[in-house]
């Protein structure tokens, strides 16, 4: 399945392309953004593998991550979407799609992450009755966003030796 293009008032959410590599390297190189996602900036090699993984998810499982760009400037804002990473975590996430998001710091506090993830979840609600997400307990902005999106905590555990909170959301 090819990724759809989603449009919101301020954003275009689309599939990544090879031409997004430099922008994604800049996004994933930011230590502020990655401190709760892997704990360190990603190398260009890791970013390239991520882009390939995104394309593979769309073709194999019919969902994945979108690159969100500003409608007026066309510049990247962040990445938002759903995935199945087959995480080795207890309790297991099962076959429920896992929501995730990352956004460049210059766009924080403007409601763009909520706008983007609302579009993703509106699209997903037709075929995915339940989604999950996992968030570091120290990541207050993501915890607030998850709550606004309708995610509810259902467990606390560890993942790769780091504390994490598991949340679930049923389609609205």
TrEMBL record:
Residues 11-172 form the N-acetyltransferase domain. Pfam families: Acetyltransf_3 (PF13302). InterPro entries: Acyl_CoA_acyltransferase, GNAT_dom, N-acetyltransferase. It comes from the Bacteria. This is GNAT family N-acetyltransferase. It comes from Devosia oryziradicis.
